[in-house]
Amino acid sequence: MLRTLFLLLAATLLPAQPPSNWQAATTLPGLDMKGLTLAQQKVVLTILRDSTCPCGCPMQLAQCRVEDPACSQSLTLATLVLEAAAANKTAPEIRKILADSPLVKAGTQRDRILLDPVSINILGAPFKGPANAKITIVEFSDFQCPFCVKAIPQLDALLKAFPNDVRLVYKQFPLDTHSQAALASRASLAAHAQGKFWPLHDKMYANSRAINRQTVLDWAKEFGLDMPKFTKVFDAPETQAAVARDLADGSRAGVNATPTIYINGKKYQGALDIAKLSPIIANELKGK
User: Fold this and answer.
1) Do 274 and 154 form a contact (C-beta atoms < 8 A)?
2) What does the pLDDT look like over 160-192, one tens digit per residue?
3) How far apart are CA 255 and CA 109, in angstroms?
4) What is the Rg, in whole angstroms, of the alpha carbon atoms belonging to the chain?
């Protein structure tokens, strides 16, 4: 009881934290406006004070810069506004540039199951299902990702439910947090060069914790692969570069976790569950 009274008394005696007063701030963390005219600075500050940060916080861009200076999205967008002002863009032009930026567009689509379509290069990538399928699902995945392991039976069930209409394309997205994922990606491409991508794919996902160079070589031998050819492709700089290209393709498309799938180029933001995916595929087939 005495401790509670002491804390209450201390709270009344301690000075309250002053508000950030971001609405009156003329400088913002991470933003150098020295090269702008006073009129340009005013335009920048006005736009940042009345534009919402898309990072998910309830703040305006200027407020986010002041109260959460570590936010990379508010910094990126504030810099975009500053650069537009420095290029002598008018306030309406700057607002349009801001609205058209990928970060702002992504923020407006956060609650959608399917986002707007993007272009993804799938030339030469392994796939299963009809080559001329009406629906192409592109999966960015990591061979040591436990969530990717759980997604496999769901995606396989989807292919069985729509055998003539859906194909699944695999794209590499090994995460740095998984020590053998990049090695597994190279191994899968070496198997793909001999037409054995999916057998090794299934084996590695079924034994994701056991993946290392020796086990991968043993599995490749088990599937009857030409081992000198396999090892050559496995260790080739070109194969490492191919994995890097898939990673770059994923990053451009908006992949930030695995597994991530795109349905005819549209990023899917729901559960990877056949009960959720089947009606979406049916709607896509109807052109909805």
Assistant:
1) yes
2) 999 999 999 999 999 989 999 999 999 999 999
3) 15
4) 25
Which three-class secondary structure state does DSSP give residue 91? helix
As given in the structure block, the two tokens for residue 230 are 């396999």
8 Å CB contact between 237 and 186: no
Strand partners, 141: 172
User: Which residue reads 């990591």 in tokens?
Assistant: 142
214 contacts: CB under 8 Å, gap ≥ 6: none
Task: Indicate the residue type of 214.
Answer: Q
Tell me, yes or no, if the pTM score tops 0.85.
no
Q: What distance in Å separates the CA atoms of residue 61 and residue 65, rounded to the nearest whole number?
A: 6
Peptide bond into 102 cis (omega under 30): no
- Residue bearing tokens 């290392």: 212
3-state secondary structure of 284: helix
- Taking a C-beta distance cutoff of 8 angstroms, is the pair 169, 122 a contact? yes
The arrangement of secondary structure in 117-286, i.e. its CATH architecture, is 3-Layer(aba) Sandwich (3.40)
Measure the CA–CA gap between 80 and 76, rounded to whole angstroms: 6
35's tokens:
């090269």
